[in-house]
Write a structure and sequence with these properties.
Shape: elongated
CATH topology: Four Helix Bundle (Hemerythrin (Met), subunit A)
Distance between the termini: 63 Å
CATH superfamily: Cytochrome c oxidase, subunit III, four-helix bundle
CATH class: Mainly Alpha
Number of domains: 1
Order of helices and strands: HHHHHHH
Structural class: mainly alpha
Length: 211
Amino acid sequence: MSEITLHESKQPALLPPKEEAIRNDNYKFAMWLYLASEVVLFAILIGGFVIWRVQNPEMVARMHDSLGVGLVSVNTFLLLTSSWSMVMGMREIMRDNVAGMQKWFAATAVLGVIFMVLQYVEYSELAHLGITLDFAGSSTEFAGLGVRFYSATFFHGIHVFVGVIWCLLVMRRAQQGAFSSKRYTGVEVFGLYWHFVDVVWIIIFTIFYLV
């Protein structure tokens, strides 16, 4: 059996157009339901920080003065760039260009990893300032800030990690011939997730660092 035949045998058979459309809609609807549940969780975490911040405005100001927002601004730019590279990869698979899609998705995964590394660097700097997850472990100057700050930002970081793994899995499936210009819902669903991760970070960046 030739290499081409082996490659084509891994491609899932297309359903009749109507059934294919229904299945794709179901996948997207399931993702939107999942994202809706994540919106609730992030709203609770971010809302809790906002309420605490209103009561302790000087503490967050001291954190910003001590750490600055330069590193986080760079990280934000990288994450937004990863969203753009994901869109470019989506465009390539719609053109049946699997190699082009993998190139752009590889960039998305790399940018996601860099984001997590820089977030670790930021956490290290915060720890030096005495901002820790434990109420008792935090310095008197920043007591109570750590648990509220890390709960939202680390929870978002977990989503970035999951997104990077998912991105690599999508790339692997593309290599196996699972996606084409006629079947790319799996890529599209991942794109919804990654855009959600970016939007949530923009909200966190605005509320936690800029306002």
